[in-house]
TrEMBL record:
This is Dihydrofolate reductase family protein. Residues 3-178 form the Bacterial bifunctional deaminase-reductase C-terminal domain. The lineage of its organism: Bacteria, Bacillati, Actinomycetota, Actinomycetes, Motilibacterales. Transmembrane segments: none annotated.
Amino acid sequence: MAKLIYSMFTSLDGYAEAAEGGLGVGAEVEEVHTFVNDLFRPVGTYLYGRRMYDTMLYWETAHDEPDQPPHILQYAKDWQAAEKVVYSTTLEEVSSAKTRIERSFDPDAVRRLKAEADADLTVDGPNLAAQAIAAGLLDEYHLFITTSVVGGGKRFFPDGVRLDLALVEQRSFSSGLVYARYRAR
């Protein structure tokens, strides 16, 4: 059975999306981006909400921009190779290959996806992840913790949820960013 992984950049105070502005040092640092590439290359399916899909759609054509560094080209290639499921009630059509739309998040359908998948899946975006967390679907949490405290926004973990996690890997980067991988107990 494949794992379902929730991974995002988060501020030091726990926000995956800041109310005002960015989260600080992130994936734009080549060292971090290369690590993310290697970490998620084996992912077979990305589960996105509408807003996260719109953000990630850049990778469908990133290779067309001139003078892209190798780590950017590699991520674009890996992203394009994976299946994508977009959960949206308003999106009429998708703009990327290997992508389909689901109108609602169905935990049982995701359980079947996990059971049938040959490669791991990720859920991306705090809103969609909150639904997966509430349904008890997540196997791992990958946090990329920036050096910023942003004071508000969308939380990485939803309010009202209790999780007991086991730290299985950690790494710090020269930028001050910290990667922490937790497994659900």
